[in-house]
Amino acid sequence: MSGIFIYSERLDIASELITFAREAGKPAVLLALSADAAQSAKNLGADKVYYLKGESPLAESYALAVAQLLQKQGSELFAVGATASGRDLAARTAGYLDCAMVSDVLSVSCADGQIQTERMMYGGAVLQRETLSGLSVITVPPGKFESSPPGLAEVEVVEVSSDPRVRLVETAPIVRQGTDLSKAERVVCIGLGMEKKEDMKIALELAEVLGAELGCSRGIAEERHWLPVEQYIGISGAIVKPQLYISMGISGQVQHTVGIRDARLIVAIDLNDKAPIFKAADYGIVGDMNQVVPMLTEAIKKMG
Ligand SMILES: Cc1cc2nc3c(=O)[nH]c(=O)nc-3n(C[C@H](O)[C@H](O)[C@H](O)COP(=O)(O)OP(=O)(O)OC[C@H]3O[C@@H](n4cnc5c(N)ncnc54)[C@H](O)[C@@H]3O)c2cc1C
């Protein structure tokens, strides 16, 4: 069966990609790589499920088998959930197919039978629009489409050889340090304008009176190692959407501000009145954080 072929080990993303196929007016064909996945996939509302039955538990080991199936069935597009294993599978499959691949699309749509994608380039400085022709591969992050209504699909089992060269030796949970900033309601964020580690005290005091989490720019975590890497915000760090975000000594380079776009209210404190953070901010305070922040903390305390 031709159409848009979809793979994600996350059922929520697979369901969203079925909605995309429906909006594009194409059949939605799901790929499953285990018996359990096939069992769940068949209820998601796709037109068909192919269960690629092989030995490996790793998605990437099925890239050649997936590429062969896509070609045999005349697939128009391979849409893959942008997870770690989805990205592995997508890139290898595109390699076997020697076709175009667009990773982590911001949006994808189908107009006049052609697939159009948008994605960010150069650390978020540029938005690139592409029109894909021929069989291509895209990876799509979660939340781009509504979930599809459930429905029962036929499952066809295809016996395949999975690539044995990569073996799963052990799995271990990731030990997180720091807090999950993506869920924080309020964030106080420190940048390289803070001179000494001891000065973090003023940020912690402000965070405490606000009931906020402490975040930082990349250099604070990766160069100075004052906070765990989970705590830095931006394109290569955490994306936050708090009600309130306050920056202290952050210049506001695009790689940082991409991570705070969805903050409801942005307050920036910086010495330099030309700092780009003031363009992103709802309220700006031009001044030395060592003076401004303790005054702000006291004022909030007085307000109770
Ligand atoms: C591929 C790539 C990915 C990246 N990803 C990220 C990312 O995810 N997150 C991220 O944060 N960065 C990221 N960066 C780095 C980014 O480009 C910036 O270099 C970084 O965000 C700058 O950090 P900063 O604003 O803390 O420091 P600076 O740019 O050095 O700014 C410090 C600011 O502090 C102010 N200041 C100094 N003293 C005081 C004071 N006493 N009181 C008040 N203000 C003061 C200064 O006026 C200045 O505006 C990335 C870069 C690249 C190339």
Description of the structure:
This protein has 304 residues and is an alpha/beta fold. It has 2 domains: 3-159, Rossmann fold (3-Layer(aba) Sandwich), CATH 3.40.50.620; 181-303, Rossmann fold, CATH 3.40.50.1220. It contains 9 helices and 15 strands. The chain has helices at 11-23, 35-41, 63-73, 84-97, 200-210, 218-222, 254-257, 277-280, 289-303, and strands at 3-7, 28-32, 48-53, 75-81, 101-102, 107-111, 114-121, 126-132, 136-140, 154-159, 186-190, 213-216, 244-248, 265-270, 283-286. The strands form 3 sheets. It has a 7-stranded parallel β-sheet with strand order 5-9-4-1-2-3-10. Strands 12-11-13-14-15 form a 5-stranded parallel β-sheet. β1, α1 and β2 form a beta-alpha-beta unit. The chain starts with a strand and ends with a helix. The model has no long low-confidence stretch (mean pLDDT 95). Bound molecules: flavin-adenine dinucleotide. The site of flavin-adenine dinucleotide has 27 residues, from α6, α7, β14 and α9.
